[in-house]
Amino acid sequence: MINKYELIELAKKQLRGEDIDSTITFHELYAGLIKYEQFGYATEILLTKIEENEKIGESIPNIWYQQLAINIYKDSSLSGFFKFDKAMNILKSHCNLEQSQDCETLGIAGAIYKYKWKFDHQFHHLLQSRAFYKKGYQIWKKNTLKTDMGHTALNYAYINELLAIQNLEHPTTDGVTDEVLKRFSLSQSVRKEIIAEYVNKNHEITMVQPDVWLYATLAEAYFGTRQYEMAIRFITLYIQSENEKWKIKTFAQQFYRIASFQEIEKTNSDSVSDVFLSSQIDEKKQNECFLALEKLNKEEEVDLDCIEFAAKKEGKVGIGLSGGGFRASLFHIGVLAGLAEKDKLKDIEVISCVSGGSIIGAYYYLKLKHLLQTKEDNEITKEDYIDIVKEMEIDFQNAVEKNLRVMIFTNLFKNIKMFWTKKYSRSHRLGELYEEYFYLPLYKKYFSEAKAIYMNDLCIKPKNKTDFNIYNDNWKRRNKIPQLVLNATCLNTGHNWQFTASWMGEPSTYISDDFDVKPRLRRMYYQNAPEIYKKFRLGYAVAASSCVPVLFEPLLLQNMYDGIDLELVDGGVHDNQGVVSILEQECSSIIISDGSAQMANSQSVVANELSLFFRVDTIVQERVREIQLLDLKSRKYTGSINQLYILHLKNGLSKLPVSWINCTDVNRKLLNQIEIEDTNALLDYGVMKKVQQMLSEVRTDLDSFNQLESYALMYSGYQQTIHQVDYPANNFQQKWKFKDVASYCTLPEFDSRLIKQLKASSNVPFKIVRLFKPFQYIIFLLLVVATFFVLKILYENWYLDTPLYSFNLTYKLIGTFLLILLINSFSKFLSYLFNFQSYIKRKIIYLALIFIGFILFNTYLLLFNTMYNKLGKVA
């Protein structure tokens, strides 16, 4: 049997015009691509076949256009802003949609609008879906044996119940309206019609050779009418007959949605009138239906108590770990600790990381990979996730103390290599340090000895699940296999560049052709990439995501695309919260952990042009952040996403409005709390306001963070998560190491040491001087001595008229300068040789600086970095 990758290769050959008829027929190739959900390739080869038929004048079957529309709206690589309208246009142009009497065509149109509603939650799309399903239902009633075997009728029932649920979730003062009851009753009656049409009084199917989809239709009809025993029977028949896992997944997800409807109906049902038949809802029987859905393998034993069916209806959960250097990484650890306590880490299916978030995201993912590959799904507990984060809060912090920014220059050989070739930059060196101090120790501990880790090494293969497919099998796992996305920014196009365990490239779904006409650099699977990129190092991917422009050179990737020298920089340039990747993966529950820098208020005039440039750039970045988060909030308000939690370092740090001079109006109490100005006051999540304010000003750097500042950042992230993320926590809170600073963060009488540390933490240079008094005295003494010598020299030479330096501008000098400029326009190399400071001399100077820097940076690490970490030790 041909596997997925072989089918894809055959599809590529056919699309290139190569003859593959001797290997496989068109119909076999097409069916195989559909089986593996390769809707993009299926679309392209179907379009090719249609074009071939048009050229030779052969008729094109209507079913081809129907299949084309289905493939397009199901293609996850296409944007929702494009694919639904495109699919509808195909039905309108080629299937005579407006006058169609074909249940299949009408059912596809109903499905397109249903999925379009799921995408944008525009209510009129739901009504359009119902209209097409209703027309199909009416046609089915006229001839139940020669149409679609009740498929559109069943979806008509589902849409009516969904509309009723929409009203129940947004109740009015009138309570349950007649319109809601009418829609609910209609959904029940249509399902009963379907059952009566195909099942006799002895509960046997009346058809001699029933289609496999009839089993699915009857199973859903019975489940929707609360006849769970019969539902189990037809669920079992369907699963025994259906071999394609993606169809089973779609089938099962419908049951979870209907179960959630029944839960809402039960909540809103009157115990006297029982308008929603809640007395017939049996949760135990529901769970038995779910158990039948889970047992795809007849030999597989599933523990009913271990399956959390309620979680499956929430949709996909994604978390964004923002940029912000090690400050953000440490804040994210606190957020992960809170989520572990609330037993939410097991539900996360997408981890979108940027810059500092990528550093910790990859670290967490390696630990998670070990857990998921050494324990079966039903063996993993909440304590396993808690243990992972408990190890991270200690081990990651120890690695952060190494001061990677300084260590970039502490290897003499690497320094010369960075100086000598553009193919090896500070960003490459940074990536190697990430691997050496963060990732390789974990990889060697959990997996095997290695000199480097590659992106495809991150692929997770669950224990005893050799044929696991994340798209078809992840939905039934209690402990999800998340997709890790490391986000960078492509300087060539300005687009988001993504690294995952399987592929890299620019996403297709969130690049709008209406406004962005630049070409997109297509994604590639590593096995299909040019030879030198088939193995792409994890450290380089994280470095690409975190190489802040100017401080680090762009990560240069040559010979990946024809004629393009690809340059990648910090992912925060494009999207510092990782929002785009989460939305692209269609997550409906979103957690944003935002440890990024936020613009501070300025009360003084901008000093100079350079300061003005940086201030304007900061304003642009701040505005982009605001727009992205406001977009998420608007999606939450419109129902496009179910849950949204945004945790950030300035949470609760609002300021009172500033009144003009001689203003007589007082600030409104309704809008502003009086205690907002009390810096010792505890914020809602239990951290003193002045401490949180100073944490929000901590540097976003890759230098050393000692325990005191690290634990304070973790504590803030943890407290916000415990307070804001409303999933039930355990009965008692865990003993986290970072809680050793709890008293510093909450009690004014104990905060002095932390306050002193955080005052220094906002600065990049001279932190050790600010913390260590003897250094301040030494520097003061040196300044006094230097001042004395300067004054002494000035005093002794005050009356001397001899100039310190003289300069004569001659025609010869001017001519030489112009000659050098002329030579420079023709030969850069000759200009180096003839320059006043020749090419060779400058190389010698650079080499000397490399040696001096090597000595200075190593000295700093040995003396000052060690001292800084000791000053920040938490007892």
From TrEMBL:
GO MF, one example: hydrolase activity
Family annotation (Gene3D superfamilies): Cytosolic phospholipase A2 catalytic domain
InterPro entries listed in its UniProt record: Acyl_Trfase/lysoPLipase (IPR016035), NTE (IPR050301), PNPLA_dom (IPR002641), TPR-S (IPR046880)
UniProt record, GO biological process: lipid catabolic process
Key words of the record: Hydrolase, Lipid degradation, Lipid metabolism, Membrane, Transmembrane, Transmembrane helix
Domain PNPLA: 321-576
Protein name: PNPLA domain-containing protein
Species whose genome carries this gene: Flavobacterium cellulosilyticum
